[in-house]
Structures are given as C-alpha cells and as structure tokens.
Amino acid sequence: MGEIEIRVRYAETDQMGFLHHANYLVYFELGRVELLRSRGMNYKDIEATGNFLVIARAQVRYLRPARYDDLLTLRTHVMRATGARIDHRYEVLRDGQLIAEGETTLACVDREGRLQRIPEPLRTTDV
To answer: Which domain, by its residues, includes 34?
Structure first.
C-alpha cells in the first residue's frame, strides 16, 4: 500500500469551492505513480521496455465533498495483478474520515496497443 498527502488547490475546485469530481482520477494517478516510485520503479522505465499501462476501467464513489485547501490522504492498494492487468483500489480521507473511494484496472499493452503480459516486478499485490 502507498499513502500520500494532497492539498486541494484552488484551480481544482468548482464554483462552489468543492474539489471537481474529475480530479479524483488525477489524484488516483498520483497515487499509482508514487506507489511505483516507492517500489523503485517509474513509468518512464516501464515504457522504455515497450510496455505501457493504460486505463481500461475507472470507478469513483463520492461520499463527502472535499474543498479548497483541504489536506487529503490518498491510500493506493494493488488488489490484483494477473496476466495483462493490474487492479488498484483507492481511499481518499480527510482527517481520517473516508470521503471517496475508487478502483481502476490498468491493462499492459505494447506500442501498437496489443495486450502484453505484465512485467514480473509489477505483479506484486498488497492484499
């Protein structure tokens, strides 16, 4: 599991001052990038081998709004890594309270978009 803190920036909010719903997916990507980094990997090195991780599915469940200047904690978990896919789960918390959760499925493809087996170092799960 990886955990990072994110401060909601003004530009990420809507007219009501709430974190715009689309930015949760941007935050999820930050979580995946930092989780990879904590394991000594990064997207640049993965892509240099001819493997690309693309979003095949994304889901977000909004429980409570986040607002400008809130300090959020994002937890990123690898749930499954099999064959050509990696499933992540996310929890967004403010002051320890769950405000949103989500899941994504990443597919591993080559430069032409054909499915590829996930490289061995990426097959580690948290659960």
So the answer is: 2-122
- pLDDT tens for residues 114-126? 999 998 888 887 7
In 49-117, beta strands by DSSP E: 52-62, 71-82, 85-94, 97-109
HSE on the CB side for 123, CA within 13 Å?
7
| Domain contains 85 | yes
Q: Extract the tokens encoding 34.
A: 């930092």
pTM: 0.94
Counted residue by residue, the chain has a size of 127
Single-letter amino acid, residue 51 = N
Which positions are annotated as active-site residues? Answer: 14
CATH number at residue 61: 3.10.129.10
